[in-house]
Design brief:
Two copies of one chain form a homodimer.
Chain A lengths: L1 E6 L9 E6 L11 E16 L7 H7 L7 E7 L8 H15 L9 E4 L9 H10 L7 H7 L8 E9 L4 E9 L12 E6 L5 H13 L5 E2 L9 E6 L8 H21 L7 E9 L2 H13 L1 H8 L6 H9 L10 E4 L2 E4 L8 H11 L3 E7 L5 E8 L3 H9 L3
Parallel strand pairs in A: 4-5, 8-10, 9-15, 11-14
Antiparallel strand pairs in A: 1-6, 2-3, 3-4, 3-10, 6-7, 7-8, 11-15, 12-13, 12-14
Helix pairs in contact in A: 1-2, 2-3, 5-6
Chain lengths: 395, 395
């Protein structure tokens, strides 16, 4: 057995990891815009990159290393995604790391970027960070700020896992994202570090599972960026490990990060779980759940706190899955809002529905009534603020 | 050869067709909310209904008639979609037509509805229209107003086709829609009438083709309503017909209606053609074109008049079609905005791009550079007003 404790702070809590963030003048404010994660010992790496066909230069650069390479240094910048910049974009990263070698000796350094697409990095500005960094710092707060774009709050988490044997290890991460996934700027980035002595095969298995159950189940605007990255770095320095404990801690961490992104969804006010059950199979449940969390009409109705179930039913119908007017049931939390025998909302149920919709967070449960397929995804409402943020970006 | 002339007015111009619209108190204003189309002679019918799994009661009622039935009467109401109302919804239509028989003798009457989902029709209000209608009127203007919901202008068109032989026929229609397609209210409805002596098989062929090239190529919000209907009624009273002339007139009419819907897109200010070429095949071209016209990020960038091509490129990449950073070219009208050798926007091109984006209407041309597949779809920007209309609807 094991216990998972939530600690204050972030990556600084993990043995052997240093981090920092500084401002080099890319953000117009004095906010941090470049940061790093460094490990005293070489790290195994497991990573999930965007499925976008146009992968950004940092991803192309990463893939040039041999399979199963190890690293001890990760550089991260905001404001510029270094995407659609061609071979020059990769050469720029190589030049940046050439210059880094004048400051500190690192092995197989990697980079990650977020921001506007289509502009080359300002090498002078980026490398000016090397003068300013404290490479032995444990400033996870400044790192977390350095990777923010439209995020309205920094996102870091730290767990300490204590095993019954008395051994323990740490897992901590930093994340950014406020649109899911907002190509021109609000890419989702997540870096998790651990001192657990975890085998590489477990890293791969658990990162896939945890990503699938978290970031792949949220939608702010249904877009997939050129830079999306979820990375797990382990240096093994704690010398302890437990499979189930690590798995649970990682699942919990990525799910919490995903909910943070939704809560910070551009202009969003509400976090909604779209729980679909009773579908023919899990694929049909997934199709319905994702259609609901992506529907503009559902999202604007949530913003307007309108208990009209018609938009939900219509969106389900538009997916073409197996379901009938007679078999369908819709609930807001525990309140039955539509069934074959209860179609029009009476005043009592309408008022109870209004109250639920005023909450910051609630469930929309759709029971298709034809099988046992289930799937839950998470979404948010669509407000004026979303349009404002995305119309005015860059200018 | 033939000539197609555009006439003022609408369905009233077609031989043998009467129409009218009245207010029965469903719209809070004094605006018309129920209308009819009546033909002196029985009409052949060709129709395309929504692919939504939950088809509204008027559609279920229509499908109860035998194949190839003819009609001379169509009743249309706004404010209530009569959708998700079950068997009762169909019985309500039957009761309405029972009462109609006290006023006028009709054959195989059909109904069409648009508005909120999930409420039964108010039979008393609907049938009170029968007292108010002039069944011999030619009031296409009032009919066009009666079917409006969030539309900000009425949509009717009338063409007169003159053949070299001296013969002529008319084709005229009425349409509504301001979201494409907005399940809870802004369903797309289109009714076209003609006095051409057109064979039923041509009606089917041409209505499919014209719908495919028009309504199936526009997107306001990517939703598919429970009530969408495109219908062609022909009474043959002109006794004249020409295959190519009719085909061209119908294609032109449905395309003009589709552009009217986009221009009236809820809160939209711009009409954009997303012209994709150079794709591996036409299916991949279609996938890209539709992804662009549905992307929230592209739509908000259009509203913000931001010439950032990064969102367009990223949306193309997210579709996973065959394309590379090197092969891709993006144009705004004739202005090359991205190519392998011209990535960052210089000030001159950026200013020219701004000017194009300030127009009410322009093309975004994406040449994927890998084949000869082509597809064009049409979309609009996403403004604060869209959120407002859809958040506040019903209340």
């Amino acid at each position: 057995m094991f216990n998972i404790f939530s600690l204050k702070g972030g990556i600084s809590n993990v043995q052997g990891f240093c981090c920092d963030g500084v401002n080099v003048g890319m953000k117009s404010s004095q906010d941090e815009d470049v940061g790093f994660i460094r490990s005293e010992a070489l790290c195994d790496i497991s990573v999930r990159f965007t499925t976008n066909r146009f992968q950004a230069s940092p991803i192309i650069h990463f893939k040039k290393y041999p399979k199963d390479f190890k690293t001890n240094f990760l550089l991260i910048n905001s404001k510029n995604a270094n995407a659609m910049t061609g071979e020059k974009g990769v050469e720029d990263i190589e030049e940046i790391f050439n210059r880094l070698s004048n400051y500190i000796s690192v092995e197989n350094p990697i980079m990650s970027s977020t921001g506007v697409i289509g502009y080359r990095l300002d090498i002078e500005k980026i490398t000016s960070s090397f003068e300013k960094f404290d490479f032995n710092a444990k400033n996870s707060d400044r790192l977390a700020r350095a990777i923010m774009t439209t995020d309205s709050f920094k996102k870091e988490l730290s767990f300490r896992v204590e095993l019954d044997s008395g051994d323990s290890f740490n897992i901590a991460g930093v994340c950014k994202g406020a649109g899911m996934i907002n190509p021109a700027m609000a890419t989702m980035l997540c870096f998790v570090t651990t001192d657990a002595k975890i085998p590489k095969s477990d890293m791969e298995e658990f990162l896939s599972e945890a990503t699938e159950k978290s970031f792949n189940r949220i939608s702010v605007d249904g877009d997939t960026s050129t830079n999306d990255t979820v990375m797990l770095l382990s240096n093994g320095l704690s010398n302890s490990y437990n499979r189930e404990a690590f798995r649970e801690a990682l699942n919990r961490m990525l799910f919490e990060f995903a909910m943070m992104i939704l809560k910070d969804g551009e202009g969003a006010n509400k976090l909604i779980a779209f729980e679909v059950k009773g579908a023919k199979d899990s694929l049909e449940a997934e199709r319905v759940s994702r259609a609901l969390s992506n529907s503009l009409l559902v999202k604007t109705a949530l913003f307007g706190e309108d208990p009209n179930w018609g938009r939900i039913a219509s969106t389900i119908g538009a997916t073409g899955v197996e379901c009938s007017e007679e078999s369908l049931k819709i609930y807001y939390d525990n309140l039955l809002i539509y069934s074959d025998t209860q179609r029009e909302l009476d005043r009592d149920r309408e008022e109870r529905a209004y109250k639920i919709m005023k909450r910051d967070s609630f469930k929309i449960i759709c029971d298709l009534g034809v099988g046992s397929g289930e799937f839950t995804s998470y979404g948010c409402d669509l407000s004026y603020e979303y349009v404002k943020i995305n119309a005015e970006y860059r200018t």
